Amino acid sequence: MTPIPFAVIVGSGAGGAITAHELAASGRDVVVVEEGDDLDAGAFDQHGPKMMGAMYRRRGMTPIVGRVPIGYVEGCCVGGSSEINSGFWHRVPREVLLSWKGRYELDGASPQELEPHYEWAEAALGVGLSKRPWPGSTAALARGIAAMGWSYQEVPRAPLTRPDPRDPAQGDASGPTAGVRSTVLARARAAGARLISNCRVTHLLRRGARVDGVLARFSRADGVVELVRILGEHVFVCCGPTETPALLRRSGVKLHIGDTLRVHPMLKVAARFPEPVGGRVSPVPLIQIKEFWPEISLGGAFFSTGHLAMLLSDNWLANRDLMRHADCMASYYVAVKGTGAGMVRPSRVDPDGANLRYDLSDIDILHLSRGLARLSEVLLAAGAIEVLPCVQGLPAIRSEVEAVRWLDERLVPASLSLGTVHAFSSCPIGEREDRCAANSFGKVRGFENLYINDASMLPDSPGVNPQGAVMALARRNVVRFLEENP
Ligand SMILES: Cc1cc2nc3c(=O)[nH]c(=O)nc-3n(C[C@H](O)[C@H](O)[C@H](O)COP(=O)(O)OP(=O)(O)OC[C@H]3O[C@@H](n4cnc5c(N)ncnc54)[C@H](O)[C@@H]3O)c2cc1C
Predict the structure, then answer these.
(1) How confident is the model at residue 170 (pLDDT cuts 50, 70, 90)?
(2) Does the Cβ of 239 fall within 6 Å of ligand 1?
(3) Are 233 and 335 in the same domain?
């Protein structure tokens, strides 16, 4: 009889990959089960709908319903969302960690305790600052910030993975950044971790307070779909912020699961400058403005011709002629530290579906309005001719007067076209039994061998790009797990 693996890890994204690495590197027999395909970095080259079909959940179209609908995007491939993200890297600010300690009694997560785990993940991904002269859209934002007398930071990033023929030392800014597939997961596999891709876990196999493994649907290369049971002494659920709670609830695990989804709601604008800003060559401006943090962050969003069409689509008839000026345009965003409430529930009609809900609070609307004012001010100060927000019926903002209006007035919620790529907190960790799904180190309440280890565990919104928090906490959890299970 084949021995039962020490651990089954469901999901191979930021949390799952690091879990696999730590366990495999300590000599444990590990199986990683991933719903998506195992695609190399070249898959990202396809761009457009084909790439989105291959690497994104529901082709990149997952709605979060609520007072204002929010378009949500996450990855569904080996490496998860890290394979399609911008690679911006933040450590969780001390103030946020203190609030997690105060409100969730989260143990073992001070900046000092997380430090070695950040250092490990940053080295594994090669996180650092850009070496190139800043692209035009970044330089423009920096110019505006200087004119406003504000401060900013270039955000460290995972490096770009594809060589750029124009500048081979730097990588191609239109390509993907280093995700966990080619870095952390590759090291886990080299250490013996086995990966089963194209295999969606549908249920946990529960037996009282234990989980014996998982039930999954494996799609073979010849198109045949097999139902398989994969057993493990320990089960780590790392399916991300929406699928982890959906899988747990589908399996009857419900205490504080999926009741507290949090997101960073994001409002984008297109800015038109008098001269080309290289947005299509270097699509992501590299600096963020934290002047108004923690409530409001301003920064640069991914830009392509297709994205420009989407940005202009809220007021298409008025703005469609601007497509001709794509070379002089770039995309920027206002992101707010959401204070609304959300939840995740498995769909009753679609066995693989999850219903996501997030209700924007009045404070979120206030911060989005003020953020739009600030972002418009800084872009106009940078020399933008006009700022075109994704707000239906709102004309282009062309003067400071039109911009600062939104410091005092509220945008009409129903007119907002919002999106987000940052979701978390659907299964918060901490010692507060009245609000936490798992203990401070991810062990699910009421179970002996079931763990969560992904973005769902963040107690609340981090207010910064979340992948650093996910990876540091996940590694810390496995180190603790190995101490307790020598
Ligand atoms: C477009 C985009 C840009 C982003 N930009 C940044 C950024 O610049 N910086 C930053 O810090 N963060 C960024 N993020 C967010 C960051 O990528 C996520 O917070 C992080 O990857 C979450 O890690 P995770 O392990 O929780 O989930 P994921 O990385 O999403 O991994 C979950 C994995 O589980 C798999 N899975 C789900 N359900 C099942 C199942 N039932 N069976 C088997 N497998 C399953 C999924 O296919 C997926 O591979 C971005 C995200 C996106 C989508």
Answers:
(1) very low
(2) yes
(3) no
